[in-house]
Automatic annotation (TrEMBL):
InterPro entries in the cross-refs: AAA+_ATPase (IPR003593), ABC1_TM_dom (IPR011527), ABC1_TM_sf (IPR036640), ABC_transporter-like_ATP-bd (IPR003439), ABC_transporter-like_CS (IPR017871), P-loop_NTPase (IPR027417), Type_1_exporter (IPR039421)
Coiled coil, from the record: none
Record-given protein name: Fatty acid ABC transporter ATP-binding/permease protein
Keywords for the protein's UniProt record, in alphabetical order: ATP-binding, Membrane, Nucleotide-binding, Transmembrane, Transmembrane helix, Transport
GO molecular function: ABC-type oligopeptide transporter activity; ATP binding; ATP hydrolysis activity
Domain of life: Bacteria
Residue stretches spanning the membrane: 38-57, 121-147, 200-217, 223-240, 300-323
Signal peptide coordinates: none
Major localization listed first in the record, in broad terms: membrane
Keyword Calcium: no
Occurrences of domain ABC transporter (ranges): 398-632
Amino acid sequence: MTRPGPAARPAGAPPAEKAKALWPSTKRILGRLRPHRMLVTVVLVASAVSVAFMAVAPRILGHGTNIIFDGVVGSMLPAGTTKEQAVDGLRASGQGQLADMVSGMDVTPGAGIDFTELGTVLLGVLALYVASSVFAWCSAYVLNIVVQSVIRRLRAEVERKVHRLPLRYFDSHSRGDLLSRVTNDIDNLSQAMQQTMSQLIQSVLTVVGILAMMLVISPLLAMIAVLTIPVSVVVTALIARRSRRHFTDQWRSTGVVGGQVEEAFTGHELVTVFGRTDEVQSRFDDENERLYQASYRAQFVSGLVMPAVMFLGNLNYVAVAVIGGVRVASGTMTLGDVQAFIQYSRQFTQPLSQIGSMVNLLQSGVASAERVFEVLDEEEEIPDPSTAKSPETRCGRVVFEDVTFRYDPDVPLIEDLSLVAEPGQMVAIVGPTGAGKTTLVNLVLRFYELDSGRITLDGVDIGDMTRDDLRSRIGMVLQDAWLFGGTIRDNIAYGNPDATEEEIHEAARVSFVDRFAHSLPDGYDTVLDEDGGNISAGEKQLVTIARAFLAKPSLLILDEATSSVDTRTELLVQHATAALRTDRTSFVIAHRLSTIREADLIVVMEGGQIVEKGTHDDLLASHGAYYDLYNSQFVGASRS
């Protein structure tokens, strides 16, 4: 019995949770950079040097413009005169505005352009841009190492976290959604960090560096440019607040779509047989449309940031050009300074536009980070005891002492259950669906923790053992045979990676895998699909039984393990199980009562309680619950 999952959210219903604040998740992401402080320092220093070189270059290039302009104007003035004489001559001729402009220039009347000095200036600017590019490349290279290291560590944390999550979590969460968080969301976070962190560092440093140069050239024009910053921040914040919710919806819908695709592909044959293809397609179309709408709204709203910031930047550019032109005409600024300042104003608004354009990536990355952090923040299994105990023997004696367990605190399930399974006994657990049969063995494996009571294995409370020690003593064969991509030999050896070739072959012979393995072209080296699709269902089950045999457990759990094999193979498996049970306990969960007639103890469960227990003959003679089950399967079947 497994715990039912949560009810599906109705189509068109609002999301179950609101988007979280941007800063807490961003702070957690930045906190993961602490182990890489030295590399982050290298990134910041390299970026600062790159920005410094880039910021100085326009000022020097402006000096080159002054050389050209001074040379052109100087060649138009009479040679042999001083600048003061030339200015006085212009005023005397009624050209006062031109005289004001010339008075603010470093001009020599009669002299042309100094190409030597101009060449030196241009080579210097070229060297600055080359150096700036080299340091920017170094910054990006080191930052890539940092980001990928953070993401690699995050993936490892999530992987380890998944193994520490209780089975209760997987019962209540979609497997497709969990896969989406582990794959899509982490990949999206990686992309967002890679693209935004480099640009964000460069943009912030560029704003600081350019602002410093603008203040040096003209505090008045710098103040005009600075007015763009608060307006841009307000606009960006207003738009980001609206887009954050849409990005959270987008990645939640991505998880739902992933879950539906995974479910449809896994059960493709069943969907086809029952003719539910159209229904599955319709459900997919509905969720795909919901994902489209969420993605469209997220990208549309966040995409408004960059045009808004660019519009403000253009207004700033116009203001700088007009005021700068007036000041050149009045002689209070040189043409080169105005040209440099206009270039700076463009460079000043460009990083603001880049920051605006990164909002959608940042919002998307934070939304994915929130989903990943939700997994990392989930409550884990109770830690293993610091001073764990381990049974001294491997006999397999299991004792349930007043065990009580509920999935839901308000819904009774197993109450004060007591049971003793002696070494070597085959204990069969039967009962109707939902009686608690599978729950009972899940408690033995500590997939769930008891509400009260205790279970002991060979005299030791399983709560005092480590889970690895406990589960290393238990072999389990499920109703659904699970195989992975690999050879038959690899799948059998999964039960004991240190097993020898002889031990693997012996387990295969005992479980009758040897019979069909030799008939395959590559024998034990036959590569199985991930779902074992190239062998029959019964053969897959035999492989899983061989795997359990190879583990040599002291306790064997068979959960409807023979349901997929034919009658003849079922008898062979029963003989093999009997040989394996020597000095080992076996719990057999069965609906087909023909498989448990020889059981040493049959436990009949109803509603989480043991209503009967005894041997097959004793229970039939008592005419109780087992008698009714038996008659419903055999006597009723024969009459029909």
